[in-house]
Amino acid sequence: MLITGIKSRPVYDQLHPLPGGTHHLIAGQGSGGLAMLRLLDDMAGEGLNITLLYSRESFSGQDFLAQLQQRDIADLRIYPSNQALVDDLNRVLGDARMGTRLYLSGSESFIGTAMQVATRYDMNSDEVLREHAGSFVRRVWCVHCDSYTENVTQRVFQCPGCSSMLVVRDHYSRRLAAFQAVKADAEVPGELPVAEELDT
Amino acid sequence: MSLSNGTLNVRVARIEAVTPEIKRFTLVSTDGAHLPPFSGGSNVVVLIPHASGTYRNAYSLMSSPYDSSAYQIAVRRVEDGRGGSRQMHQAVNEGDVLEILRPVNLFPLSKHARLHLFIAGGVGITPVCSQLAELRLRGTPFEVHLAVRGAEHARLGEELQREYGDAVRLYRNDIDQRLDIAAVVADRPLGSHLYVCGPESMIQGAIDSARAQGWTDSHIHYERFLEQGSAGEAFSVTLARSGATIEVSPDQSLLEAAEAAGHEIPYLCRGGACGMCETDVLELDGEILHTDDWLSDEDKAANKKIMPCVSRAKCSRLVIDC
């Protein structure tokens, strides 16, 4: 029923300066701060036009704000949550011009939702780099009640939206930025698959 | 000739002169049925018979993709070309039946673009005509920047202006209206796409301007006029599968020479863009003159592949896997 080796899961990059850009947007959260610092080192001295967006929300408690603040970045924006960052990213990209490059670093859930915004502005793979940081905990979408659950680590869990027992399928939707979950005991009510730790 | 995409018989319903050099041909099916559907930017290959064989020229469809009762193509007469367009102008009359290949699209619109910018020179406007019909229905904003030599060359552009108003800008060289490509691509919103069809210098200029302003290649699209494969020095090629050795004359492409000798090589665009005719080079004593847009720079340097529709060779021996 479940497939291992998830082909639909994005293959992530390593952040490095993209050539030719006129404006560089670096957006990340939590553990992603480390990759942002490395990227800033690679960009140092080039006189690039850089905007930095950092969210302090973190599954693991990692916070690189202090180090980021020590860098000489004219436009550093700080957000209490990933959602606040993604909302602002939407505004920034709405005003952005051709020549913009986008660098994303953080959890899969953060990168996925940020990519939904970038896709709305038709940014392609030669304009965006994504580096995964932290654990691979999953963002899961319930096919029954259309709710999203963050940081799922178990194969079988109860949907907070509709209370169904769900099984997380190994299918990642880029459009929804989430894994798909379906009712676990749909065929025989009460008969649940074995609970197991997800390959997060 | 059997091809994966088949051929169609069409009747020339109407021929009209739209500039001193361009004639517009309206083609309908011979049995009154609708023609196969196509999308904006598509082209058809017209099989043009002549005394010693068949020219195969690709022409963009300029009619609306939403009206498949007829196809329209514009043929610019090229005096010093191979002769296909001259034949279309001189020998084809209203009522004649022509054989064409089904439409293929090697210059499609980006489906997610937020703004479409078109830059065209002269007859390069023809693929844009069908693309605009598609965009109007979709409601995505666009701008057309069309450069022509003078008033008598402006008719297709004027037709588009009547249809689409200010979105179409016309630049006439004779009254010194200059198309500033760098200004067209400057300060555009994220998600803009650029489409260029015109002479080589215009295409290169547009690519350079866009890249200089930070555009990436995924947002830059172009279509070349397809004449580059059939001018050069003669060479000979051996087709490994049949063992035949074919002489390619200076005014033929390798593909045309093979066809004239009765061999079939699969093709779509005949312009080095689509990749259909990509062929392995089995033996080479000399060098390949790559003129396609398909192979990567590494492939071209390795000389292990050739695009028979446009590329030539300067060699004493060439064996290809055909």
Describe the structure.
The complex is a heterodimer of chains A (200) and B (322). Chain A has 2 domains: 23-132, Nucleotide-binding domain of ferredoxin-NADP reductase (FNR) module (Rossmann fold, 3-Layer(aba) Sandwich), CATH 3.40.50; 138-183, no CATH class. In chain A, 22% of the residues lie in helices and 29% in strands. Chain A has helices spanning 33-43, 65-69, 82-95, 108-120; strands spanning 23-29, 50-55, 75-79, 100-106, 128-132, 138-142, 148-152, 156-158, 165-173, 178-183. The model of chain A has no long low-confidence stretch (mean pLDDT 93). Chain B is α/β, with parallel strands linked by helices. Chain B folds into 3 domains: 3-105, Translation factors (Elongation Factor Tu (Ef-tu), domain 3, Beta Barrel), CATH 2.40.30.10; 115-224, Rossmann fold (3-Layer(aba) Sandwich); 235-320, Ubiquitin-like (UB roll), CATH 3.10.20. In chain B, the strands form 3 sheets. In chain B, strands 1, 2, 3, 4, 5, 6 and 7 form a 7-stranded antiparallel beta sheet that branches.
Name the CATH class of the largest domain in chain A. Answer: Alpha Beta
Poorly predicted runs of chain A are: none
Most residues in contact: chain pair: A-B, 19 and 21 residues
- Write down the overall geometry of chain B: globular
**Judging by the overall fold, what is the CATH architecture of the largest domain in chain A?**
3-Layer(aba) Sandwich
Main pleated-sheet profile of chain A: 5 strands, parallel
Helix content of chain A: 10-25%
Give the % helix of chain B.
10-25%
**Hey, roughly how much beta strand do the residues of chain A contain?**
25-35%
Distance between the termini of chain A: 18 Å
Task: Write out the CATH superfamily name of the largest domain in chain B.
Answer: Nucleotide-binding domain of ferredoxin-NADP reductase (FNR) module
Keywords (chain B): 2Fe-2S, Flavoprotein, FMN, Iron, Iron-sulfur, Metal-binding, Oxidoreductase
Protein name (chain B): Putative oxygenase electron transfer component
Domain FAD-binding FR-type (chain B): 5-110
Cofactor (chain B): FMN
